[in-house]
Structure formats: structure tokens, C-alpha cells
DNA sequence: TATGAATGAGCTTTCATTCAT
DNA sequence: TATGAATGAAAGCTCATTCAT
């Protein structure tokens, strides 16, 4: 693996777990077994490294998510929704996804990161909104915009609490209640 | 106002908005019109300042929250739940509460803060859990533990999204749908 | 002496002899027996240190020059000119003046220094022009502007060559020929 | 053009305008559209590049100057002097010459450059001294050594002031007064 | 010949902390 | 109580130079 990839890999890990400010270039070098010069050879500065890390992380997450979106054709709106939520909750257990939740949280509260990634973040939020709205559009009792905002926010909240509590967090049970809640709200029957 | 209070006041603001790491003692001094020596006279070091800031912030938030808890006696479980959620959503608009959400988010992401405040955070989470469980205990179809975790997480998520998006975030509509969702899940009638 | 003065003193010496870019803050600290932190406590950054150094140097040079200007009243224009040139040449041997010539040369060729000191440099050039023009104004055959420019440039050139060659540079003889040259040009009798 | 020539060309420009220290190898590569490896293939290190640049620059300047020296035979000492000064002043407007004045100034100020080029500089100064002394030898009232030093220094000074002030610097008028000054000093009639 | 990845020393600057006053 | 001078470690970054290809 090229040193550039090593650096990005390590940076993802450290930015997500310790935050951008607290992660020194030196720390990245130490973990990636690379010299400081190498980092600045491949990335103009720390901010550019951050941007490349963000993009790389988005790609990884997209790969994970593409698996679901694939074969939902022909399903009813209800089934699509269940499918999507099911997938989201299940993927929360994946290390890549957990890292990405932590990473996004860092972005949210560190002004430096927000400033650097502003454009990229907005793009991603719009994408998520669109993906929920596409499904909700076919459900008469849904409020496309509001429910999408709500879904995103709640999933965020659960993911964050799960990632940071992890041990004995009743994720599976929450998932069931969460899905049922939405089915009821949207006028469907509960499942299970 | 004593210099110590000035320092804490400024520190709350800066820790919440910029994060603990990014907030230098110098910055605090500048904003509080106080000398560096004064800070280290009143607080052993930066970490102790952080702890005092956390405690001070908790007190402020408790004052806000006590107003509701006060007169819920004699109400039905359903009414209590609606009351509580209503209060939580409404208080999200208060500057003090927004600051506290930002502050807690900072704690979550920044390992330094977490390490310093670990004990205090756990206490607060337990308190919130207890407060929800007390209400849910009287509702047969509720799953006390799971639903409490879920409620806390979702409210967290919504608060965070609201605080950082603020402009044109449909908080009021989300609140309505959110409450109805829970009423349906717990076997009550929708309201409004 | 305060540490701030020590720093400025050392910085003058090093900026003049080695140049601004080549003079590291570390080097200044080492020579001034001061910590790096002390430098940045007293000066916002290296550029501000440069500006303060320039101003301090200008003050020193002004003190030297004030001695002459003092008692020229009542003298003829010719005598005033001779006096001034005499003083300038004599002061070239002073360590302070040599340092200032070197310093000004550094400013001239280092774009960073020029940029930082632009305003201060222009002020000083205007002052020198004025001081020569005041004397030449009373000499009919002089061309105030042109001769002032020429005088400044030539003195610069001689000072530079003297400072950097020093050993066995015939400064005294040059002074005599230099003054006579100007007396002849301006229509006076040679002296000596 | 060979890559080596490209590098030298760019290095002249950058060393003269920005100084040796401030000019990084990377900058040279960028301007010359050449890789870093190429520079170190053609030149052992940065100092050797400097020496080759100096030599190349000297050749360019010599070509310019040879044009005059060529056909001065048979002229009187006075005419030779006027010729030489005339040529020097006129050539100040040439871009090559201006670059060379800046370059020489850089050498003077930057100890690194001086150290590397010491021998080459002394050679050039001796050459200039000789060229003036040859002419002055035939003028009884001249002081060969002293006047040569003075001429060199003054021309230096004027060139420097001209190059760095450029806009609206009265070079033409200075030239006239300068030549007349020397004619008077050496016992000749003024011209024009 | 030529490339560019990689290194490590050194640069300016920030920062929590100490201490004499 | 309060000041601010002083420290030294560590941060982000630049740069000449080396080397495998």
C-alpha cells in the first residue's frame, strides 16, 4: 500500500476518535510509520489532508450503503422504508460506519473542520434528505420534508449514543421499537 | 461580579462554541478582561476550570428544567409525557439550553473533556434515564429501559441538528410528529 | 536592562549583518539569553519585531545626526553643505551608523523586509531629501531635486562599499575629493 | 534549450529579485518546469548552482560591456571617460544589467552568498578598478586609486537607487550632473 | 538523464503553566 | 488577590538533499 493511503487510513482513525485539532501531524506520522515530510509531500497542508480524508471516508460509506439500495425495486413503500431503516441500524455495528459517525460528529462541533468541509457536508446532507424523501413521497400520510429531517436527526442521535456507550446498549430492541414507531405514524401495521 | 464568575461565564461560552482544546487560556483572559495570573489563581489548571464550568452549566440547566417537573402531580402518564416532551422541545430555543447541548456534544467528541468529566457525565445520564423511566413505568405498553434510551438519543439528535442548522429548521413541526409518534407507539390517541 | 531591550539590541545586530530571513528567532534567543516564548510575549510576531527594530534603529541614528544640525545657524550655504557632508562621512566610522547602513541595505534587497517596512522607509527617504534640498535651495547653481537624489545615492554607494571593504578603504581621501567635486559643481572654490 | 540552461535562467531571475535564501529549489523547479531530481542531477547542491549562476551572469554582463570598450582607441582621456560613464549610465536601463545590479546587491548582503562567491567577487572588483585606473592614469589631476574607488561606489549607489525606485527617478539628469562633476574635478571643461 | 517519493532538521508560532512582584 | 514576564514543549510547515526507479 502506498504511503499516501497509509496516511489517509491513519488520519481517518485519529480524526474520528480524537478530533482534528487534537490529532497532530506527528501523531499521524508515528502511527503510519512515515516521516513528517511525507505528509506534506502528499498533502498541501493539514486542511487538505482533512478534505481528502473526508472524501475517502464518504467513498467507503457509500460502498456499504450501495449494497442495500441495489435491490429495492418492485417493493412497496412500506417495505422500502423497513428495508432502509433495517440496513441503517445493522450497519451501525460496522467499524467503518462507527468511525464515520464519530467523524461526522467531530465535524459538527469543531468549527475548523466545519469551515474546511462546509461544501462537502452540505452535499451529503442533501443526499440523505433526498434518499428519505424518495421513499416517503409514496406514502400519503408522510410529511416528506419534516419526517426526513426527523429521521436523520433521530438516527444521528441513536448512532452517537450507541457508538459512545456501546457496551450493553440495547440497539436491537431500539431498532424494533424505532421501526414500529414509524410504521404506526405513517399509518401502517406494526411488524413482529 | 467576581472575577471567578466572569471567567466561568466566558469559559462556558467558548468551550461550548469552540471546544475545549481550541479555547486557549489567553482567549478566555481576553474575553473576560482578566489577567492570566487570575485564572491560575482561581483554578489549579485548565482541567479544573473545565470541571467547574461543567458543574456551573449543570446548575443553570437544572434551574430551567425544574420549572416543569414542579407541577406535574396529579396528571395522567400520557399528560406527563406530553408535558415533558413539550417542555424539552420548547427549551431547545433557549440560549442556555443551546449552549448546554453544544457543550455536551463537545464533551462527547473530545477525549480530553470526556476523561476529565467522565464521572459527572455518567451521573447526568442516569438522572435523565430515571426521569423518563419514572413516567414510562405507568404505561403498560412501554419498554421502560429501551424507550428511555431511545427517547434520550432521539432528542439528542434533534437538538444537535437544530442547534447547528437553526435557520429554517422545522422544529415545531418535528415536535408535533415526534410526540404523536410516541403516543401511537405507547397505545394512546394522537393529539391535534 | 529589560529583556525586551536585549531582544531588540540583538535583533538589530543580526538583522543588519545576516539579514532578516537568515536570522532565526532561535538565534536571537541564543544571543540575547532569552527563551523563545519571551520573544513572542513582547512582539506579536517576527514582522512586528522587525518594525520595532527599525524604529529603534532610526532613533539611534537620529540622535547621532542631531548633533550636527544643531549649530549650523548663521552659516553660509557653502559652509552648511561642507558641514553636513563632513558629518556624514565622519559618522560612517561609527558602529551604529555602519549597522544602520547594513540594515538599510538588507531592507532594500529583501522583499519581505521592504513589504513590512514600506511606509517607514518612504518617510525616511523623504526626510533625507528634504534635508538636502533645504541647503541646496540657497545655492543658485544647484538643481535641488536632482542633486539631492544624486547625493543620497552616492553617499549610499560609498557607505556600502566602505562598510563591506573596510580594511584599507581610503575613506578620508574619498571624502576630500567628494566634497571638492560638489563645491566645483556648485560654483564654489575648492577647499584645502 | 537544455534543462540546465532553463534552470540557470530561472535561478538568475529568482536569486536577483528574491534573494538566494528566499529562493527554494522547489520554486526554481516550478518556474523552470523541471523536476527536483533534475536540479540535483545538474548541480551538486544549491551552492554550486549559485556559483554557476554567478558565472553565467558575469558572461552576460561582459557581452554588454564589451561593446563599448571595443572602439575607444585613439580617443583622448577625457573622451574615454565620458564614453565610459555614458555607457554605464545608459546600460542601467537594460534588464540584464538591472538584474545584475540586484544580484550583486544580494551577494553583498547575504553572508551565505558572499562566502560562496568570495573569490569571484574579488576578481570582478579588481577588474573594474583596473578599467577605471587605465583611463585615469592619463589625467594628471586624477588620483587613480581614490577616484576609481569613488567612481565605483557612486555608480553602485546610483544604480541601486535607480533600480529600486525606477518610476520617475531622474536618471538622465543625474547622469549629466554626474559627468560634469567629474570633468570639473579633473580639470576639464563642462559639457553641454 | 530525469522523476518525484521520502527524509529529517529547522523554522515560526501557540500554549499551559510558573513565579516574582 | 491580581499582574504579566518568562519558560519550554509541541504544533504546523518548509526545505535541501537522497535515492529507487
From TrEMBL, chains A, B, C, D:
HTH tetR-type domain location: 1-61
Transferase listed as a keyword: no
Keywords from the named record: DNA-binding, Transcription, Transcription regulation
Pfam families (alphabetical): TetR_N
Start-end of DNA-binding region: 24-43
InterPro entries (UniProt xref): DNA-bd_HTH_TetR-type_CS, Homeodomain-like_sf, HTH-type_Tx_Regulator, HTH_TetR
GO molecular function per UniProt: DNA binding
Keyword hit for Repeat: no
Protein name: TetR/AcrR family transcriptional regulator
Organism from which the protein derives: Photobacterium sanctipauli
Amino acid at each position: 500500500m502506498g504511503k499516501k493511503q497509509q496516511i489517509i487510513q491513519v488520519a481517518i482513525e485519529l480524526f474520528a476518535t480524537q478530533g482534528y485539532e487534537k490529532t497532530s501531524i506527528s501523531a499521524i506520522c508515528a502511527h503510519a510509520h512515515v516521516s513528517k515530510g511525507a505528509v506534506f509531500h502528499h498533502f498541501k497542508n493539514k486542511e487538505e489532508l482533512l478534505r481528502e480524508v473526508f472524501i475517502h471516508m464518504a467513498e467507503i460509506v457509500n460502498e456499504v450503503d450501495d449494497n442495500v439500495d441495489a435491490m429495492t425495486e418492485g417493493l412497496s413503500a412500506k417495505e422500502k422504508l423497513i428495508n432502509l431503516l433495517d440496513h441503517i441500524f445493522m450497519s451501525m455495528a460496522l467499524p467503518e460506519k462507527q468511525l464515520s459517525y464519530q467523524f461526522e460528529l467531530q465535524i459538527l462541533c469543531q468549527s475548523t473542520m466545519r469551515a474546511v468541509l462546509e461544501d462537502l457536508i452540505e452535499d451529503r446532507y442533501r443526499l440523505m434528505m433526498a434518499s428519505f424523501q424518495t421513499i416517503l413521497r409514496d406514502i400519503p400520510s408522510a410529511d416528506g420534508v419534516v419526517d426526513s429531517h426527523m429521521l436523520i436527526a433521530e438516527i444521528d442521535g441513536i448512532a452517537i449514543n450507541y457508538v459512545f456507550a456501546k457496551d450493553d446498549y440495547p440497539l436491537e430492541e431500539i431498532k424494533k421499537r424505532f421501526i414500529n414507531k414509524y410504521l404506526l405514524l405513517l399509518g401502517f401495521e406494526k411488524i413482529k
